[in-house]
Specification:
This protein is α/β, with parallel strands linked by helices. Strand 7, helix 9 (280-295) and strand 8 form a beta-alpha-beta unit. The two termini are 28 Å apart. It has 16 helices and eleven strands.
């Protein structure tokens, strides 16, 4: 049936969807091409923890049958997708990158998966991640690290490195990630892809295994801004099963991406997110992208958010505190791993042995920090103070958005570092999220998109665009305009410059 020219795995989701709708290629052919690509390269990349080969082909065949019967299908019907292994999918292993959930097959779909099924998206499998989303490099997975397709000796970001690597390695045109402090955006930056953290509450968290309930947010990962917009539209919207879900219309992100006209848009350059501590090549490519925005007719002004310097410290009290509460459910009694249950040990002993064996070092570290911060006598001094800082950061954003429609910064202070380089230095690892964390604390929407390669190492650099809560469409307006201008300059998407695996 194929009449489309070129490698199917190198096409964007939008191009593939249009080709399938026009009858130029079948969903089954597209799915099999991506499964073949996974077989070919994932032994080196290790983006996937579980591949749904048979199930994916069957879903694709169903899409083809319904299309042949004349049914009206959604804009992403038949497009393959990689799913971060923190979202439940009925009957499919869900590990969150942890031994403590080894063998668990949830009996229900997350809302995100329900909406992907309703959109006739073909889910290829579950992707690797830092254990329970705690990390910035995907080195903290109990199942081994994922590698960056640009350089297999380097990290793909974290915690959602598997999802970003799958897109960068052309194993899938779309993926779902989750972002608690930058886990969609930082991987996107270091792999030359697009990643979006929607407004907190904009995408349902039902069936998303919780790390920090006031921070976690699922969102789209893609190779183009338009692809991300189509996926965002498919998964967003109110869900009564999630008490934090916003009951309001979803901003028209697809229309904004199509418009891509930023003449007169006010863009705020965040003074505190840049300069010292940022790699010279990252700053250079960011500054060049700012000039492009100006050339496109945007008004760029500097804004100050003075309390951002306290964001990292506040975040690493709030997140561990919520994590210590959320992870208490993994006790070896109800599901997942159980160690030492030989009839001679008490329930408490089995719980302790299970957690000792099932949780990795980074998870244990954060649970202990969080439990300490919430303990009697320390709650006000630590957790309470961190929440006050969170309020100040939210106020900084509010003041900045009075001066600008969107805000910008580098997404990450450096390009991808080498595997093993920071894994034994938690503070150095935490600094990778210094530019992304404030957004999660305030609940705003943000995007990372590629703006070039750093001259020192030839690795991707990302720009972060931030919008107010429930103004996600502004991300796509600015992101699509910048992407279009840069692609015109480069002659192709940045990801096309990645070395062939």
């Amino acid at each position: 049936m194929t009449t489309m020219e070129g490698d199917l795995t190198r096409q964007s989701a939008t191009v593939l969807a249009d080709a399938m709708a026009q009858g130029e290629v079948s969903a089954e052919e597209v799915t099999r091409a991506h499964l073949d690509r996974i077989s070919e390269v994932d032994g080196d990349v290790h983006a996937f923890l579980h591949v749904l080969s048979d199930e994916a082909v069957e879903v694709a065949r169903g899409v083809d049958r319904r299309r042949a019967a004349g049914e009206r299908l959604g804009p992403l019907a038949g497009v393959p997708l990689a799913l971060k292994d923190v979202l439940t999918m009925s009957g499919v292993p869900t590990t969150c990158g942890s031994r403590v959930l080894e063998g668990w097959r949830p009996p229900y779909d997350s809302t995100v998966v329900e909406r992907l099924r309703a959109a006739d998206v073909v889910i290829l499998g579950k992707t690797n991640m830092d254990e329970f989303a705690m990390g910035s490099s995907t080195e903290h997975s109990a199942y081994g690290p994922t590698r960056n397709p640009w350089d297999l000796e380097r990290i793909p970001g974290g915690s959602g490195g598997g999802s970003s690597a799958a897109i960068a390695a052309f194993e899938a045109p779309l993926a779902i990630g989750t972002d608690t402090g930058g886990s969609i955006r930082q991987p996107a930056a270091v792999t030359g892809t697009v990643g979006v953290k929607p407004t907190y509450g904009g995408v349902s968290r039902y069936g998303l295994v919780a790390l920090a309930s006031s921070l976690d947010q699922a969102g789209p990962c893609a190779r183009t801004v338009m692809d991300a917009a189509l996926l965002h539209a498919a998964i967003a919207g109110h869900d009564p099963r999630d008490s934090t879900s916003i009951d309001a219309p979803v901003p028209d992100v697809v229309a904004a991406a199509r418009k891509a006209d930023i003449r007169g848009v006010r863009i705020g350059l965040i003074k505190e997110l840049g300069g010292e501590g940022y790699q010279a090549g990252v700053s250079q490519r960011f500054d060049e992208a700012v000039e492009v925005l100006t050339d496109l007719g945007a008004e760029v002004v500097e804004v100050s958010c003075p309390n951002f310097e306290y964001a990292l410290a506040a975040y690493y009290l709030i997140l561990p505190s919520e994590a210590s509460s959320n992870l208490a459910r993994f006790d070896g009694m109800r599901y997942g791993l159980r160690v030492g249950d030989d009839g001679d040990r008490s329930v408490e002993q089995v719980m302790a042995l299970t957690r000792e064996a099932g949780f990795g070092a980074e998870v244990k570290r954060r649970i202990m920090i969080g439990t300490y911060a919430l303990s009697s006598g320390y709650y006000d001094a630590y957790y309470g103070q961190a929440q006050k800082v969170r309020t100040l950061i939210t106020r900084d954003f509010a003041a900045a958005f009075e001066q600008a429609d969107v805000l910008i910064s580098p997404t990450a202070p450096t390009t991808a570092f080498k595997i093993g380089e920071k894994v034994d230095d938690p503070l150095a690892m935490y600094l990778n999220d210094v530019a992304t964390i404030p957004v999660n604390l305030a609940g705003n929407a943000a995007m990372s998109l590629p703006v070039g390669l750093a001259p020192e190492d030839g690795l991707p650099v990302g720009m972060q665009v931030i919008a107010p809560a429930m103004a996600d469409d502004r991300l796509y307006l600015v992101g699509a305009a910048l992407e279009r201008a840069l692609v015109d300059r480069w002659g192709h998407l940045l990801i096309e410059e990645a070395p062939d695996l």
